[in-house]
Amino acid sequence: MDNKTISIEKSPTKMDVYEVPNSNQIICPNHYQGKEYENDIANLNNQIESSSLYRNIRLKQLLSNSDTINYLQAAAILRNQKGLNDKNIGLTNEKGLNQLLAHHAVIFKPQDKLMWVSANPFQCGEFVCYNLDSVFANAKTIHANKAINEAKFTIPADEFLKSKGYQNFLHFKNLKHYIQFITKASDKIELPPQFENAFIQSNSESYYMYQILGDYYASRHNYNNAIEYYNLALTKEIATLKEEKQIRESLSKCQISEAN
Asked: How many CB atoms lie within 10 A of CB 170?
């Protein structure tokens, strides 16, 4: 084992192999890092317009807290929902490492042939550990339901699941779907004030939450309220440049309509 990790970066027209020299870690965000792509326009635009570069910096920040990390620390990093410098950026923000969206997360310890896979929901459930040597050695002899995990290495579920924050997330998710539905449905369906207040309380630091309310009021031609919510959205940590432009365009349209 040479203790190296590399990232193979491939696009429809070219390929590169990215390796960090003289380092014990490699970070792989959603943009290319190899020499072949350093001047690629599409890659540069992606770094500017998406949340990938932000998450890259955030991951480096969390990794810098320790010289080495164990599997428990790795799970804590994968579950982290904060922004740079532990800023509260709202639940489900794309700039967070855990956006409460991913199906699962995986941790590997190659030298010990150990692999952890998270149970639902998201990265918050238990991380169940498997010894790959044992799993493959016994695969042909197992003919019934039988536990094959290494129970002593199980990473407990995130305490977040027992918190008010998780209940807020569930409220936010349900109310989000409802408000987006009535925004597109008949304008005879009004948003009850108690629902609006509960939605704000569920995720008060989320730009997306205020954007959704802005869209609702814009659809009802209540431009004054829409303008207020779009302006509030712009005070929060917005995930991408595209979304910021969209909010500003919606705000501008409402301001023009309100003036006429």
From this structure: 12
